Each structure stands twice: as structure tokens, then as C-alpha cells.
From TrEMBL:
InterPro entries: GTP_cyclohydro_II (IPR032677), RibA (IPR000926), RibA-like_sf (IPR036144). Pathway: Cofactor biosynthesis; riboflavin biosynthesis; 5-amino-6-(D-ribitylamino)uracil from GTP: step 1/4. Its EC number is 3.5.4.25. It catalyses: GTP + 4 H2O = 2,5-diamino-6-hydroxy-4-(5-phosphoribosylamino)-pyrimidine + formate + 2 phosphate + 3 H(+). PANTHER family: 3,4-DIHYDROXY-2-BUTANONE 4-PHOSPHATE SYNTHASE, GTP CYCLOHYDROLASE II-RELATED. Residues 12-181 form the GTP cyclohydrolase II domain. Its cofactor is Zn(2+). It comes from Leucobacter alluvii. Keywords: GTP-binding, Hydrolase, Metal-binding, Nucleotide-binding, Riboflavin biosynthesis, Zinc. It holds the Pfam family GTP_cyclohydro2. SUPFAM superfamilies: RibA-like. This is GTP cyclohydrolase II.
Length: 211
């Protein structure tokens, strides 16, 4: 199914949207195929070029965890909405896939995420707030994402992410991450501590020095 997309700043794109049966977690995740995505997939017939083997193509892929507050309502407490907007444009330009994963609040759910916000207002960082609620720092599991990528023959990818855990999990699940491509830094007046926590606590590749 092809769906035309339009963002609040006027940017438009078209996505071929895939749904799935039998995902391991039973959730309704989506895969949006953007740009010339068919041409970004390996064909298996890459031959020698100037005496050297030509590397097969690898689509640009973003695993984007659902964030109702950021993606829909434009909350500035995180960088999720701007990352989603950036990912669609970059993937559409190069050909690849955006996986929209139903893992709100790093897997703890919407209401718990809002409870964690209250704890952050009291001084905890985003990870400590989750733990204070009796949850994991990050409960996301990317097994379903690996299943989705395998279903569209994207088992060799370039991953658009600042999060090393995504690459590590995908690699362990049989998806070859040939390159990690950093997203831009989306700093607002409300999310600096949040971004610093991701950089310092979980080694996200976020450079705030120039932001």
C-alpha cells in the first residue's frame, strides 16, 4: 500500500507501507519503504568492477520507536519527532526502510513514560526514572525488527542511528550492519539533559559541543 506523507514543515514523500503477520511480539509494527528501495537491496549478481569485487548495496534503515508525545504532539522533551522527520527525508533520498516500532517509552509504555517524566522533573535522568518505576532502563527488543527486515530481504543494512544497542541487537539476530550513520543533533530548550544522558550513559553518538 502506498501512502503519501506530508510533514508540518511542508516536506512530502511517498511510502510503500508493509504490515506483518507472525511477528514474535505480536505487535502491529510498520515498515515504510522509501525512495528507490528496490534498487538498494542486494541482487546477488554484483560482479567485479575494475578488478575488484563490488560490494552489494545496502539500504539505509532507521528503527524508530513510537513516541506519541514527540512524533504526534511535537514534545520538545525528546528528539524523537525531529529524528523521525530527518529519517524519512534521508531514507527517501537514498532508498531504504523506516521501521516504526510500537515500543513507546523505550518499551515501558505511554503512561509509564509520563510517570517517568514526573520523576525527571524531580531530578532523575531518563534512565534512572525508568528504574525508579521498577522497569528496565531500556526494555526494547529488536527481534521483530530483524524479522521485518528479513521479510523484505534486507539482511545487510546501513543503520541510521546514534544508539549502539540497536546495531548490537540486530547483529546478534542475523542482520549485518555494514555501517552506522549518525542522525543529526536535535537540541531544544528542554531536552539537553535527556541528550546528555543518552550520550553519557548509553554511549549514543551525540555531539552537543556544536549544538
Amino acid at each position: 500500500m502506498r501512502i503519501p506523507l506530508r510533514f508540518p514543515d511542508g516536506y512530502t514523500a511517498a511510502a510503500d507501507v508493509f504490515t506483518f503477520d507472525g511477528l514474535v511480539d505480536g505487535k502491529e509494527h510498520l515498515l515504510l519503504a522509501l525512495g528507490e528501495w528496490q534498487g538498494a537491496l542486494p541482487t546477488g549478481d554484483a560482479g567485479p568492477v575494475s578488478g575488484a569485487a563490488s560490494a552489494p548495496p545496502a539500504p539505509l534503515v532507521r528503527l524508530h520507536s513510537e513516541c506519541l508525545t514527540g512524533d504526534v504532539f511535537g514534545s520538545e522533551r525528546c528528539d524523537c519527532g525531529p529524528q523521525l522527520r530527518e529519517a524519512v527525508e534521508r531514507i527517501a533520498a537514498e532508498g531504504g526502510f523506516l521501521l516504526y516500532l510500537r515500543q513507546e517509552g523505550r518499551g515501558i509504555g505511554l503512561y509509564a513514560k509520563l510517570d517517568a517524566y514526573a520523576l525527571q522533573d524531580a531530578g532523575l535522568d531518563t534512565y534512572a526514572a525508568n528504574v525508579a518505576l521498577g522497569r528496565g532502563e531500556d526494555e526494547r527488543d529488536y527481534t521483530a525488527a530483524a524479522q521485518m527486515l528479513s521479510a523484505v530481504a534486507a539482511e545487510r543494512i546501513r543503520l541510521l542511528s546514534n544508539n549502539p544497542d540497536k546495531a548490537e541487537q540486530l547483529g546478534a539476530l542475523g542482520i549485518e550492519v555494514v555501517d552506522r550513520v549518525a542522525t543529526s543533533v536535535h537540541l531544544s530548550g528542554f531536552n539537553r539533559k535527556y541528550l546528555e544522558s543518552k550520550r553519557d550513559h548509553t554511549a549514543h553518538t551525540i555531539d552537543l559541543s556544536a549544538a
